[in-house]
Amino acid sequence: MITMHETEGYSWIQTLAQSVSRLSEEQLTSLTLYLRSHQTTSLTSARLQRLLSISTTEASQLVRNLNSAFKSLRDSQSEPTEITTALAGITAGRLLKASASQAIEVVCTSPTRLGVPVRATFATTIEMVQMAREEIYLVGYVFTRGARALVEQLAAARRDRGVRITLVGNRMQTHLPALRAIWPAGTSLPTVFSREADQDDDMAALHAKILICDSNTALVTSANFTHHGLHENIEIGVRIESTAVIRLVEFIRAMIVMREVEPCEWQAQNNTSFQKKHARD
């Protein structure tokens, strides 16, 4: 059990944390390395100002706090190296927090700017596809020509970087005419799988909307891959960057192996009325 006296003995850590709160992770690392390799007698505000590229006032305050921390350690007969250990812990905590916050991001489609700092669905899909280097899975309930820009980016990834493209959808035979109309001529075709109508349950469907790139980044969203889903509706999803994304890939592959979805021929179909109806959507 930590006593009140022991707690007061470590109050310098709180002061230290507050004094370096405005420093970046790079500055914290530079400060930690400097303190590990120099005597405390060489610690001056001018030296810290040059080392960390901070103002004279900030450097002077930081020196006072560090000197106070060193004095507390001497009074408690503790090793001065505890300061560098504390700084390393603060830096690691910062990095861990930053990593955790970036692993999952909220992604939205909205017809108006609500002033909420979230990523846009359309921009996120384009960015993910442009960054993919090996394999892309696009799983959706509806695909229309309103997703032209996304489909063109998929084709570019296939043509320019050799990325493997797999499309998995619900009743894809219905959506292939629209996809064929916007897939650039002369570009290698994607692999397509379809979950067709269930004769025993007409309401059963593949309703997922997922974009997976290189088995480590996924967008799981409520948005269909249509003009309104990507630009006009109110849709919410999350962009996930994690090794756990491989589980989604394994699920899709299992659907293919178990014939829950069937290969779909990418062939021309005469369906003018369908294309006209969905020209914008």
List keywords for this structure.
single chain; Endonuclease, Chain A; nine-stranded mixed β-sheet; 12 helices; 9 strands; disordered N terminus; disordered C terminus
- State the order of secondary-structure elements, H for helix, E for strand: HHHHHHEEHEHEHEEEHEHEH
Number of strands: 9
Q: How can the largest sheet be summarized?
A: 9 strands, mixed
Instruction: Calculate the mean pLDDT score and round it.
Output: 83
Overall number of domains = 2
Rg value: 28 Å
CATH topology of the largest domain: Endonuclease, Chain A
CATH-level-2 architecture of the largest domain: 2-Layer Sandwich
Shape: elongated
The first-level CATH class of the largest domain is given as Alpha Beta
How many helices does DSSP assign?
12
Unreliable parts: 1-9, 269-280
Strand order of the largest sheet: 2-1-8-7-6-3-4-5-9
Helix content: 40-55%
Strand pairing plus helix content: what structural class? alpha/beta
Strand content: 15-25%
Relevant CATH superfamily of the largest domain: Endonuclease Chain A
How does this model look, in words?
The chain is an alpha/beta fold and about 280 residues long. The protein folds into 2 domains: about 5-100, no CATH class; about 110-275, Endonuclease Chain A (Endonuclease, Chain A). Helices cover about 50% and strands about 15% of the residues. It has helices spanning about 5-10, 10-20, 25-35, 45-50, 55-75, 80-105, 120-130, 150-160, 170-180, 225-230, 245-255, 270-275, and strands at about 105-110, 120, 135-140, 165-170, 190-195, 210-215, 215-220, 235-240, 260-265. β3, α8 and β4 (about 165-170) form a beta-alpha-beta unit. α2 (about 10-20) packs antiparallel against α5 (about 55-75), α4 (about 45-50) crosses α5 and α7 runs parallel beside α8. The longest helix has 23 residues, at about 80-105. The N and C termini lie far apart (about 65 Å).
